[in-house]
Amino acid sequence: MFASRIIKSKIGVGCRLADNHGAFLMRSLDQMLALSPWTGGLSPDQLDRVKSDVVQREFAGGAYVCRKGEPTNAWIGVVDGLVKLNSESESGKAVTLAGIPAGSWFGEGSVLKRELRKYDIVTLRDSRIAFMPEATFRWLLDNSIPFNRFLLMQLNERLGQFIGMIEHERLLDPDARVARALASLFNPHLYPVTETKIQISQQEIGYLSGVSRQRVNQALQVLEKNGMLRVEYGGITVLDLAGLKRIGG
DNA sequence: GCATTAACAGCCG
DNA sequence: CGGCTGTTAATGC
Which nt sits closest to A2, CA to C1'? Predict the structure, then answer.
């Protein structure tokens, strides 16, 4: 079962930016910060502090970035790769609450409420993760109105996304659920620049959309036939995002 | 009927 | 070899 597959994480390797790890180190933290909407409204020294406080770590695919129940001491950003918010029952059944592509920041809810992590955060493939210490996060909260605006937008956007998920789960057929689950990885507010090619297994799409892997396979083939995406080994390429969103009304 | 689980062969990296 | 894909068969709502 997927739960027991804990893969070692490579820790504390911000300095590895220097070595050539190939495509694995595609995106730098500086690039990611530049693309994050909330950095635009910061003063130069605020941005400086952010850059010196944020730390990065690399995680192999399938690794836990953090576990349910751990104290929340950082706001988390996906610099490169793909992670999921996951919840697992005692019997081992897993649900994915959200897939989080590169470029996005999340976990502000638990930081704001000073609560323990409510879900597992698991990498779906090799990923580089940024951690902004809670102190820095709170300092921005106290000192930057644009930062607060960004958080409001993000919380609002996510609320809409989760409401949509509940609606879709009850009203849409599996093909449409798969389509919407994939489209949700492309929310332009939450995820500024997601590449059209996503490396994610059909099994994971199943966890994300709430249907079986076999049914995901079937749905993907239908969507491919409709020209909305291309099915590839270990991933898909989205060709018609608007079309994916449109399915099922 | 339709989706799910289980099982398996074949392919990919 | 381990992981992923695409199929089929059996089972359940």
Answer: C3
